[in-house]
Amino acid sequence: MARRFSRHLRAFEREAAAYRLLRPLSGKFVPRCIASASTPDGSDGLLLLEEIFPSRTGDQIRGLSFSELSSVVQSIGAVHAKFWNSPQLRKSQALPLHHYNRAQEAGKTTPSFLRSCGTLLTKKEAKRVLFFPPRILRALREAKRRPVTLIHGDLRADNLLFAPSRVFIVDWQISARGLGAFDLARLIGGSSARPLTPGDQQRLVGIWHETLQRRGVPRYRRLDAWRDYRLGVALALSIPLTNGPTLLQLSDRGRKIARLMIHRFFQNAETILEI
Q1: Which domain CATH number covers 263?
Q2: Is-above-0.90 flag for pTM?
Q3: How many domains are there within the chain?
Q4: Using one digit for the tens of pLDDT, what is the confidence trace for 254-266?
């Protein structure tokens, strides 16, 4: 199942391409990639990365504190700033444009999500799910008119290494070119240890926006950053719809993550988008 999914996304090809682009940031926000290889279909490969020691891995089930989220937002903001509307990024054929965790498939995957995950939903949540695919597709259309950068695509606690003075971001297998604020929505909506108020989330978006400005992104207002974040929150609703049924089949931990993921993303959409 994992290999089929990896082949569909050309996951190793994308990760190797991302690490090539990220070389100037190696040792700062991502580990240094010493060597990489991918099979022709992109489904398998090899990465040799430097060891980050001492460090600890984030835990998706435990979630992240506000302080930890703030640190991650600064790291991903530095990556986004480096590739903001970058000609170098546009040349990368291995990284698809505007692919947000199969958001374009949300309408097709919703029936299977309801069959597989329906017992995990409250009655209110089950009714709301039917309104998600149109909102996701509308956000996808709007995102295509926004600035483009390198996005991680799966920015969550399990893909983070917390070192004493910085956060390293790993596992770039579904990296793409697209809306940077999607990474924030993926991180905040899926990995916060507690539900965050709109005010808390505006503070985190503000930290991201300040990082972009400090690192040379011009003419991007904080108001634009918040608008793009709201688009990201809508796009992130595709994550439980497309990933939930698969996670339920993988392991006990996968089932726990599926339950948390569904409730976290749904609750955050209700908080930020009122749906």
Answers
A1: 3.90.1200.10
A2: yes
A3: 1
A4: 999 999 999 999 9
